[in-house]
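Journal club prep — side note

Before the paper discussion, L.F. wants everyone to see what a predicted structure for a comparable chain looks like in token form. Sequence:
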Amino acid sequence: MKLTQFSRLIRFQNLVIVALTQYLLQYLVLRPVLFQAGHSPTLDSFHFFLLVLDTVVIAAGGYLVNDLLDYEIDLINKPDKVFIGRFFSEKTVLWLYISMIFIGLAIAWYLAGYVENRRLFLIYPIAVGLLFLYSKYFKKWPLVGNVVVAAFCAFVAGVVLFAERETFSVLSSAQPAVVENAKILFGGYLVFAFLSTLLREIVKDLEDVEGDSQLGLQTLPIAFGAATARKWAFAVNLVLIAAIVFFSKWLLEKGNYLPFAFTVAGLVLPLGFVGWLLEKATEKAHYSRLSQWIKWVMLAGLMVLILC
């Protein structure tokens, strides 16, 4: 098994971003607020690492099952990125997927016991089940699959706050001023993660029309036409820009001039360019370029967290 191909199979770069997102939110946003208020996090460093690992395992499993179920589609849409049959047999990938499911279940069960709430264990099978249903059914329906993926990306950020929900809830009532910044940063990033991912998913559907249509999928551009899908993408892009402008105003009022400048230059202006490209896009290469621009915006969103 070649390490390079394996890392590409499980989308290692994407998994690093998942882990980085959770660590940035925990250590730059949440923990400082908790310590300032005299509280310790529910999860210490080791147990938070396990939470991040569990999220990464869920995401990696989602990529594997998606590749297994999308093998024929990927041969058309992105033949150079198909690893099943070239480097890994279908049986090997299936074994990897099942192994990750059991590893993730074990970690989730342990963490639920550690916080003395076994019901929290259910979050894991629900997340795994939704990603499987996405690959099997949801992605074949207009917008449904797009929304599921966007919701999962927001979940990556939200689960960090969820793990500390009880302490954070107490602080919100007792010391609202202390948690105000954290609430805005968390809420803003959740909205950003959802909308930016939804935008990219619609653009990816426009990029993959050829292969998706040959195999009978009913994605947004196939079901309603590319023009309608572009309008949806344009609308999501406008809402995203509006949300970021609102967030930028808050940064300016707080006197956070460096994050404000970066947010305008690194998020608002590129998204304006994305809107312009959407108006002009007609070919697969155009949508590939759009997808790369949106990826940059998503990475820039993480940089804002660091600067704040």
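L.F.'s comment for the group: The longest helix spans residues 176-207. Keep this in mind when we get to the figures.
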